[in-house]
């Protein structure tokens, strides 16, 4: 079946994320901005200056105003609320004075996280046409692809199931913002904590 190899890679990536844990804001999982170094180093380097927050033209970067469990005053992105738009010039990274955000030469260096699909809640996996996350992804047909197959219990219909390639997904969160399913959203970005973990 098309995409079977990708599923195997995804399962490996998921296991790594479960081991690493996640940053939370209340009951939400949040992301570091693009170019963030590994989390321990980030917390040491970030001087909470807010320049990345001010530089973002989309107001995607928020500053933790209370102890959210990942560093008071440090920058984060809540993908469901307002994801990273992957600017061509990454102004947030360019203004960072301490290299807490650094090392973006192309979009694949972003590595904010990995999108994970909840196949129990994704309506595409139940046989309905949707594909919003697929169409909205800036790396369409790279980071997210469609796995098209005949519905097992209904051979007259096809399933158009989105699948994530963990080698290409950069964790921008646009898919999570656009997902049509609520409580719970059917695609979430799990934050990367160590560069290159997937
Ligand atoms: S790349 Fe652009 S949209 Fe994304 S956080 Fe940085 S400034 Fe904001
Ligand atoms: S610009 Fe850099 S040092 Fe300043 S808050 Fe953002 S990540 Fe931290
Ligand atoms: S987080 Fe979603 S929208 Fe962004 S690259 Fe990954 S699959 Fe595409």
From TrEMBL:
Matches recorded under InterPro entries: 4Fe4S_Fe-S-bd (IPR017896), 4Fe4S_Fe_S_CS (IPR017900), RnfB_subfamily (IPR050294)
Domain of life the protein comes from: Bacteria
Keywords, ordered alphabetically: 4Fe-4S, Electron transport, Iron, Iron-sulfur, Metal-binding, Transport
Domain 4Fe-4S ferredoxin-type: 35-66, 73-106, 160-190
Entry's Gene Ontology molecular function annotations: 4 iron, 4 sulfur cluster binding; metal ion binding
Protein name listed in UniProt: 4Fe-4S ferredoxin
Lineage per the UniProt record: Bacteria, Bacillati, Bacillota, Bacilli, Bacillales
């Amino acid at each position: 079946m098309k995409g079977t190899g990708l599923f195997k890679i995804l399962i490996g990536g998921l296991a790594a994320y479960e081991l690493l844990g996640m940053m939370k804001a209340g009951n939400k999982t949040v992301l570091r901005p693009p170019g963030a170094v590994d989390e321990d180093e980030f917390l040491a380097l970030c001087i909470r200056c807010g320049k990345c927050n001010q530089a973002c033209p989309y107001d995607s970067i928020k500053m933790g105003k209370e102890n959210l469990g990942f560093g008071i005053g440090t920058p984060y992105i809540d993908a469901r609320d307002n994801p990273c738009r992957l600017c061509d010039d990454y102004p947030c990274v360019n203004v960072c004075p301490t290299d807490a955000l650094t090392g973006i030469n192309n979009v694949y260096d972003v590595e904010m996280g990995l999108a994970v699909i909840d196949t129990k809640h994704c309506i595409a996996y139940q046989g309905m046409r949707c594909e919003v996350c697929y169409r909205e992804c800036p790396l369409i047909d790279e980071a997210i692809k469609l796995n098209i197959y005949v519905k097992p219990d209904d051979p007259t219909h096809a399933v158009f199931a989105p699948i994530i390639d963990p080698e290409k997904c950069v964790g921008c969160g646009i898919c999570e913002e656009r997902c049509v399913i609520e409580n719970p959203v059917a695609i979430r970005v799990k934050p990367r904590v160590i560069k290159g973990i997937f």
